[in-house]
Every structure is written in structure tokens, then in C-alpha cells.
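Service request form, structural biology core

Requester: graduate student, group of Dr. S.
Request type: structure prediction, single chain
Budget code: on file
Notes: please return the result as C-alpha cells.

Sequence provided:
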Amino acid sequence: MPLGRNRVCFSIRLEGFNTSHDILVVASDGYPIVPTSFFAFASDAMTIKPPSTSPAGPDSGALAEQSDFVSDAFRDSWVHALLPRRVWPYAQLARWERPIGSWLLLWPCLWSFALGHGVAWGREDTPLAFDPGAIVLGFAAFFIGAIAMRGAGCTYNDIVDQGIDGQVERTASRPLPSGRVDRRGAMLFIVAQAIVGLLALLTLCSIPGLPAGSEGGFNAYAFVLALASLAIVFFYPFAKRITDWPQLVLGLAFSWGALMGWAVTFGTLAAPAFWLYVGSIAWVIGYDTIYAHQDREDDALIGVRSTARLFGENTRPALFGLYIFALVSFAVAAWTAGADWPAYVGLALGAAQMVNQLRSLDINDADLCLKLFQSNSQFGWLVFVGFASAAILNLI
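Core staff response, request fulfilled:
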């Protein structure tokens, strides 16, 4: 507001993690007269704004629209284009606008399912009949289950981490810390997603003709194995508080599908499934370390631990070791399963994709880290196509 011939008054709002502070500034002849309180306040962001003419402010509509988005989400996603605005917070809890997590959870399931079918189709004693309907049903159940359980896991993780997320710039706008969803609503949403996941699991355990070599029926082994993974899912959000290796715990959970695909196919486990599992754990640690570098500085301020902070400037050689271990484990899984040559071609192409990640990596570039993290779905595709092609050769 004007104060005189050459003076004007405006306010500066300093926003912190848990507080904000308005400071009155007087500018005289173009030079600001700043009170000492300005320098005493440690701020995270600063915006200069003219005083509004109404309690809500002239830009309140734009700010309200802004608050409906999560800062690191894709604003042109199908969630924001097709779903009613009142549903957005729940879709954001489940990360529907960011499907990469569902794909990364799905790939170990499909790798194991494809590799197991290759073994079953190649048997001479009790070969598995080729049933396209059963294969499509299995893929669909794994796909739906991955979306539902990844969403339930993310919602549970956000409930546990609500206090932490409110202190991290990238996550402060998520539905729970921003207040757009309350804890009761989030818990009910977990239940709804878990029911969908349970239906997908029941479908997987009742696919006609499976387990291979049996007369069909309910696959109790796969059902119990799936339930066992919930203990890891429950513990994961707490891992970052007590260990530098929360990515290892995530790997144990996200790689569980490598066991499930085989168990659905055979009603038991064998060496190829275990090799897929340990290799996938190393792969998950690698790509989630890249992802964690986006929050490395905020994590250090609030005491959240991660392999990104643990590896630091040694991230590239650490990822090299993890990715080599993953590739060797996948190759051993293919070899113990008797997979044909396309499996190894897929792994070779996947290795090239991993090399490209390592060559491009800049741990101080958050946008690049996100892109490299997302590129791991390309690796998943390459390995899956190789394993599936090897399985199909056993039918020819």
C-alpha cells in the first residue's frame, strides 16, 4: 500500500516446514527497508505478494486448484483428466497417476510365470497343456493384483510416514500431510484395495490346469506364500528409521512376485525361483537408490536413512555391483530352468539398458534420477520378452 510520495509497503511470507511468517517491508525510493526479523527466520521458500483486497485473496481459486495436485505427479495423467476431483486424493494415495511402481512390482511376477511355463511346457513326463485362456487369466490377475497391492502399500506407507512426508518438499503435498484425506479415510481405502488384491490372489490360486502336473483345484501353497509377504510390507515404512538399507526391505517385498509366479505354476518353489528372487532384490535396491537421491538432502535434515545417503558419491560403483549381481542371478535362474537362447538375449539387452543408466547417472540431478528410475520398466520388458520367447520355443 502507498505510504507517501516515494514509499510503498508490501509483505513477504516465509514458508518453513511447519510454520510461516509474514514480515512487513517498506521500500523507500526503490530501496527496501528490511526489519531484522527477516534475517532471523530460516526459510525454505520466499514469495513476495501484494496485499489482497479480500480475505481469501485474489489468487485463492488458483491456489485451491494447485493444492489438489501432488508436486511430483504428472498433471496430465488420466487421473486428473477422467476422474472426479473429489476422487483425486485417493487416486494419489494409490499412485494411480504414476503407474511405474505397479509395473516394477509386476515384472518379477511375469518373469517367474513365463520362466515356469517354459519349464512346464518342456516336460516330457507331465507336460502342461497350452491354454491361452489360462495364461491371459494369470497375466490379468497378476496385473490387477499388482495395482491393488502397490496402491494399498503406498497408502499404508503414507499413513505411517505422514509426519515425515510433511517435512520433505517433494512429498509435503501428498493427500495425508496436506490434509485432503484423513487417516480414517486412508485406512478404509487400504481395506478396499486389499479386497481387490485378495480377489486377484484367489483367481491366481484357482487357474484351471494349474499347478502343473496336478488335477487342478485350489493352490493353497501359493495362497499362504502370498500372505507371508505382508509381514515385510508391514515392516517396510519403519526400516528407514532404523537402518541404512530400507531399499533392501523394499527389495524383499517388491521381488516377492518372483516366488509367486513359480508357486502359481507349480504349487511349490524351486531353484530358478530363488535365483530370480535374489537377483530381483539387487535390482530393486539399485533402482530405488537412484530414486532416493531425489530426497537425499531433505532426508539428511530429518534423519531418514537410505542407501542413497549410505553410498553417496560411491553410488555409481555400488549400482554397478548390484546390477551385475542381478544379471548373473537372472542368468543362473534361466540356466537352472533350462531356458532357451532368447532368455539370454533378453538379459543381454537388459544389461545394455543398465549400462545406459550408469553412464547417464548424475545423483545431483533430481529430474534425471526420476527418469532413470522410471526407465527400469524397459529393463523389465526386455527380460520378460526374453523369458516368454524362450518358453514359447518349448511349444514348437
